[in-house]
Amino acid sequence: MLKSLGLSCILFALLLVSARAAEIGDDGLHKEDWFSVTFRDVAEDVAAATAEGKRLAIIFEQRGCIYCREMHEKILSDPEVRDYIKANYMVVQYNMFGDEEVTDTDGEALTEKSAARKWGYIFTPTIVFLPERLDKAIPVGKAAVATMPGAFGKLTFLNMFRWVRDKGYEGDEHFQVYHARIVNALRAAGKLQE
Predict the structure, then answer these.
(1) CB-based contacts of 27, cutoff 8 Å, min separation 6
(2) Residue-averaged pLDDT of the chain
(3) Where is the signal peptide (predicted)?
């Protein structure tokens, strides 16, 4: 009995270590160790991501955002989600109300908060997906191929990253139709937990 209790404690401790929550930075934002730290020059970041065979995703968050916390604790900590994003995306975090300098694709220098206003992002978290090549005359808000405002469940979240990676935005299948098709296929196969 004591032996099985000790084994259970060890397994529980290992589970806690493997499900490590993101650290909180000085700016109050959750920090994933696989997020990219850059100079926030969007054109340079797109080029760097493309050179690595990845796509650029910018994520806007804010201090105290309960939906951001849930995204980190429940979605980004999931190995399937985390591993897919790490393999296919370069993710750069912006503070919705931050003062760090950002360079827009049109060359304008802004703060994070003025970039959020210029590009029209008002919710956190908001994930902005950029194309592989940019027209430098078009600011990020118009150049984005997709935007995911708010927090969603694992499958919707992951499917958005897959849809963008597969360039679904170039085809006729809207994201909602793509997502519904996958959900229905999983449901039919008995692989969807409701």
Answers:
(1) 63, 95, 98
(2) 90
(3) 1-21
Enumerate the β-bridge partners of residue 60.
94, 126
| Spatial separation of the C-alpha atoms in residues 142 and 120, rounded to whole Å | 9
3-state secondary structure 60-79: EECCCCHHHHHHHHHHCCCH
pTM: 0.87
**Residue 68 tokens, joined:** 């951001």
d(C-alpha 69, C-alpha 49), whole Å: 26
| Spatial contact of 83 and 75, defined as CB atoms under 8 Å apart | no
Q: Which domains does the chain have, with CATH numbers?
A: 22-152 (3.40.30.10)
Length of the chain: 194
